[in-house]
Automatic annotation (TrEMBL):
Domain Protein kinase positions: 84-328
Gene3D superfamilies listed in its UniProt record: Transferase(Phosphotransferase) domain 1 (1.10.510.10)
Swiss-Prot/TrEMBL GO biological process terms: mitotic DNA damage checkpoint signaling
Protein's name according to its UniProt entry: Kinase-like protein
Record organism: Mycena venus
Keyword field contains Transferase: yes
GO molecular function, a single term: ATP binding
Length: 328
């Protein structure tokens, strides 16, 4: 981190330029031909059964009971609601790794988890550990994916996370009332919580937003089970993937120079990220979440009050955007 002091009209202003504080994409050691196979014995010692291995097939089925508290699942509970309980276990050849550093697995209770490999000295590991530990994890405003364990081995850390579903996939498009009452409320609450603890996510787009529901379905008609789940009030939203996140200390300003590998893809990417100048990552997050709201529902289907809010959040002028707390 490079701390620059600028003297303007006799007033000293401190701002922080994070040249390389956010992580570059993780890569396994090139000398390891099949990294997940290489680490399989280590993970097995921690009761982790990797996808499409004998351990996966030998692990008993997961519990059917859905967690009463999605962010604090008990050993006897499943992580999320499944439309068809007998389809909880992902079949052979169905899972596709989004990146080489991510793999599907089962915990000792037979529940599907996602294992993410990161560098042990990465900011992602530090941020995840901070968010997953008390008192932050115990706060109801913390809408980050449950992390079951953090396993260190040499220079590599494995983050064991509950597997939830993507709310932008499948046949279940959230209704306007559901969007305003659940999706919008929880995501803004979660973003305000992170920002309140000086954490900017830095990569907000639909792929990095999950909910505690997984569905495998090919029919177009409404699903009564899913509609019942929505009305139950048990739906929870969570942010995932902190590989581009930054933690900014209280004593410095919020200006960050991110570089080309910072930020989500268009159209969720705040325009100031690519200007080549220091920018406010918190304001960039607000822009991204506003674009996510527009993605989930066309503007014509959003009430006038929410249209005004989303328009402010996606302003091309960062200073004109509300903070996440103000928007919430």
């Amino acid at each position: 981190m490079l701390l620059l002091l600028v003297l303007i009209s006799g007033v000293t202003i401190a701002f922080c330029v994070l040249w390389a504080r956010h992580d570059k994409p993780f890569e396994f050691d090139h000398n390891t031909i099949d990294p997940w196979r290489h680490f399989r014995p280590f993970l097995a010692k921690h009761s982790i059964a990797l996808y499409e291995t004998p351990e996966w097939d030998a692990t008993p089925r997961s519990p059917v009971v859905v967690a009463q508290d999605a962010f604090h699942p008990q050993d006897t509970e499943n992580f999320c609601f499944c439309v068809f309980p007998n389809m909880q276990r992902t079949g052979s050849g169905v899972w596709a790794n989004p990146t080489p550093a991510i793999q599907l697995a089962l915990d000792q209770k037979g529940r599907e988890v996602v294992i993410k490999a990161v560098r042990r000295d990465s900011s992602e590991r530090d941020i995840i550990e901070r968010l997953a530990s008390s008192p932050l994890r115990d706060c109801p405003e913390n809408h980050t994916i449950p992390v079951l364990s953090i396993l260190d081995l040499g220079s590599v850390t494995f983050l064991v996370q509950a597997r939830w579903g993507h709310c932008n996939r499948g046949r279940y498009v959230p209704s306007l009332a559901f969007w305003a009452g659940t999706v919008q409320h929880q995501l803004l609450e979660g973003l305000a919580f992170m920002h309140g603890h000086r954490i900017a996510h830095g990569d907000i787009y639909p792929e990095n937003i999950l909910w505690n529901c997984r569905e495998i379905r090919s029919l177009d008609e409404p699903c009564p089970k899913f509609e019942k789940f929505k009305l139950s009030g048990a739906c929870r939203m969570a942010f995932v993937d902190f590989g581009r996140s930054v933690h900014i200390p209280d004593q410095v300003d919020t200006c960050v120079f991110g570089g080309p590998d910072y930020g989500p893809p268009p159209p969720f990417r705040a325009p100031e990220i690519d200007n080549g100048f220091p920018f406010n990552p918190f304001a960039a997050d607000v822009f991204s979440i506003g674009k996510v709201f527009m993605h989930l529902n066309p503007p014509s289907e959003i009430s006038a009050a929410y249209q005004d809010l989303v328009a402010e959040m996606t302003s091309l002028t960062p200073a004109a955007r509300p903070t996440a707390r103000a928007a919430f």
